Amino acid sequence: VSSIDLMIRGATIVTMNADRQVIEDGVILVSDDTIAGVLPAGQVPADQSAKRVIQADGLVAIPGLINAHSHLAMTLFRGFVEDLDLQDWLARVWKYELSALNAESVGAGSRLALAEMIRGGVTCAHDMYWHYEATMQVADEIGFRLISGPPITNIGGLEFNGMVAQARKTLESIQAYRYVIPIIQAQSTYTTDRRMMNTVLELKQAFDVPFTTHASENRAEVEQVKAQHGMTPIELLNSYHLLDSRTILAHCVHLRDDEIDLLKETGTNVAHCPESNLKLGSGIARVADMLAAGVNVCLGTDGAASNNDLNMLGEMRTAALLQKGAHQDPKLLTTLQALEMATINGAKAYGMDHLVGSLEADKKADIVLLDFRKLHLIPRHDVYAHLVYSANKADVDTVIIDGRVQLDAGRLTAFDEEALMAKVGSIGGGFH
Ligand SMILES: [Zn+2]
């Protein structure tokens, strides 16, 4: 193969391709932003040249992790609101978000989130937040895949027509961002009404983008929506014609059997956020039941104010342990399923599985190398077990996004970490 920019040689490659193939002593060839080949070392010509070679013996290559639900600049509120349920937590967070945030602080909080996620092997993340264009600009500047778009909500009595005009304007010009995957969002069914959701549907169709919202996160939310609308959040979204294969619902903790069936029938995707659900005392989502029913479930950290980190390796572990413990059945949520949720399922949910989510020729070069030459990763009987249960963020050695090396043997290439920590620390220090 000619014109190879990067060759990764000697790694164990966890491809997550359709056959879930694992290649020992493998080679990944990258040409510009694209994977040119994933194959056993024996099939690569001895004289294969590349502009750069990463010798990766003892390292494990996985597809870049996809954080399917988050609020990036919530890093600013990390550790700020503790030991409250969803409703009290939201009331306190919204008060500060509406009064204290601006494009500059959101940009700084987002930059910190991206640095944190890249260090944890995340190459693509969803974002729903205020001053969302500031986050898009930062992601584009860094070269990080960001799933984002305007959120519709009545929080703080925001003026609706102005919000919709701004949403249209953003969606019309969003192609200018190379690294932003556009979506339309609504905060929830309890902060929107039918008119607002009709507009969301209109924008979803007009711009042909996926839609995401929070749904059925805790018991009180379901009861509140039932009292307001006579329907559960899932039923209400269905009545808005917003359940389909291009919809991603975050949380879905409290679902009836028939609601799981409805998600399956409509092809609706679910973004599971186990640590946030635990921390806010929201409950444990019926992930095993959803997977058994054939619902596409992906994985997210939610914001750093309710997690309190953006660690997808930890999130996989929590997701797997929770289903086993909650159901008293160790067969539920296998290590392979946990990794699927953090990679290919997230790509499918957002309609990106032709581009990312697995290591295969012709996909984008979003590649993570973990250093398995560690005490806690020896011996290696089962690479999936180590990825889900033993590996941690400090084992992430190299991260490549779109063919660009963002973490190079432990060094972030696009960030000044000291300056970033100082800035975010001083902004956060202003919240009381
Ligand atoms: Zn959320």
Describe this structure in words.
The chain has 432 residues and is of the alpha/beta class. It is built from 15 helices and 19 strands. It has helices spanning 86-100, 103-119, 132-142, 160-173, 194-207, 219-229, 233-239, 257-266, 274-279, 287-293, 312-327, 335-342, 344-349, 383-390, 417-428; strands at residues 6-14, 22-31, 34-40, 52-55, 59-63, 65-67, 122-127, 145-148, 151-152, 180-182, 184-186, 211-215, 247-251, 269-272, 297-299, 367-371, 396-401, 404-408, 411-412. The strands form three sheets. Strands 1, 2, 3, 4, 5, 16, 17, 18 and 19 form a nine-stranded mixed beta sheet that branches. It has a six-stranded parallel beta sheet with strand order 9-11-12-13-14-15. A four-stranded parallel beta sheet has the order 6-7-8-10. α4 runs parallel beside α5 and α11 (312-327) crosses α12. Residues 69, 71, 214, 250, 302-303 line the site of zinc ion.
